[in-house]
Design brief:
Largest sheet: 8 strands, antiparallel, barrel
Shape: globular
Helix content: 10-25%
Order of helices and strands: HEEEEEEEEEEEEEEEEEEEEE
Low-confidence stretches: 1-20
Number of helices: 1
Number of strands: 21
Distance between the termini: 97 Å
Length: 341
């Protein structure tokens, strides 16, 4: 009997020890899981808070630069990378969106530098500024040492709700003359109408509709020559690229069908130079859909901000359709727009 009791008590002790050990392991496992969960939350951008010193600065900004009395548009996006590093994107009055690797913020003032793009020359371009009330104010210093003052306002979201209701189509090009259009420079105008075709004979002025639009569907039939480079600006601010892009090239935001510097098409659906091409473009708020020659190459993608060459940075306002004429020749035979009601 004594041996039996000893055996039972030994087993009981072993079981108790095992349970205690398992309980400890379970507690340790739960602690590790909680730690992993906390680390995942820390690395989840949606759960990160904007550093206090950057509050009000993070976001998108529509900028107007004073260049010797001429107002020119620019755009800036300030974002958080990791815990508190500020990075972003910048669009000048020409060229495409360029990344900003580090925005330094100290004592309420920020600054960053970017290399030149199409400006040419050596050295960096420096942007400095601060938040004054609800606006940005600062200076852009070119790589040639020229300083220009600017102001910036928070860019609107341009969200739309519900289904769009479309109005009556408007023929923008009547096949006869330039009624309803104006040129950016009379003395440099190269646009003519011949045999029902709107032709930009060579690099010269841009062509802009007198009427302005907000949300719309636009159909454009166009033809470009080998090496051609042009574009259609939506609301005068967002360029859809027309370019002689080789079909074996990887799609990109600077090539045929891209929203310049921002949105790349999923394919280069061009018919090629010397052939008639068609864009069917729908713009609602910031969301754009582009169908090129019957193929949807961009579907309801957000355009973050203005592209280089924009007429202005007033994104909350209606704007014209403008045809880029300052690069190469291009031809159009159909331009029809259907505004939203």
């Amino acid at each position: 009997m004594l041996k039996k009791y000893i055996g039972y008590s030994t087993i009981a002790c072993l079981l108790a020890g095992t349970m205690a050990s398992c309980g400890g392991a379970s507690t340790e496992s739960e602690a590790k899981q909680e730690q992993v969960k906390q680390e995942e939350e820390l690395h989840n951008p949606a759960s990160l808070e904007v550093p206090k010193e950057a509050e009000g600065l993070v976001g998108r900004w529509d900028i107007t630069v004073d260049k010797a009395g001429k107002k020119v548009p620019s755009w800036l996006e300030v974002k958080i990378s990791g815990y508190n590093t500020l990075v972003g994107y910048f669009v000048s009055d020409s060229g495409s969106s360029r990344p900003v690797s580090h925005i330094v913020l100290k004592d309420g003032k920020f600054s960053f530098v970017i290399p030149p793009q199409w400006e040419g020359g050596e050295g960096d371009i420096k942007v400095e500024g601060e938040l004054v009330g609800s606006e940005l104010k600062g200076t852009i210093t070119s790589n040639k040492g020229e300083a220009f003052n600017y102001t910036g306002v928070s860019a609107p979201y341009l969200n739309r709700t519900g289904e769009a209701a479309w109005g009556t189509p408007i023929v923008l090009f009547n096949g006869t003359d330039l009624t309803g259009w104006k040129v950016s420079s009379e003395e440099n105008n190269k646009w003519v109408v011949k045999d029902g075709i709107l032709i930009n004979q060579e690099a010269g002025a841009n062509l802009i509709t007198e009427q302005k639009f907000e949300d719309f569907k636009l159909t454009a039939e166009f033809r470009y020559a080998q090496g051609g480079n042009s574009g259609i600006y939506l609301r005068g601010r967002y360029e859809v690229q027309i370019e002689d892009s080789p079909k074996d090239r990887h799609p990109g935001s600077l090539f045929y069908g891209g929203v310049y510097g921002f949105l790349a098409p999923n394919q280069l659906a061009t018919n090629g130079p010397g052939e008639w091409n068609t864009y069917e473009i729908t713009l609602r708020g910031r969301l754009v859909t582009i169908v090129a020659n019957g193929k949807t190459i961009i579907s309801e993608q957000e355009i973050p901000g203005i592209t280089g060459g924009a007429l202005d940075s007033n994104e909350g306002e209606p704007g014209p359709i403008y045809l880029q004429g300052d690069h190469t020749g291009v031809e159009f035979r159909k331009l029809v727009i259907t505004p939203a009601k």
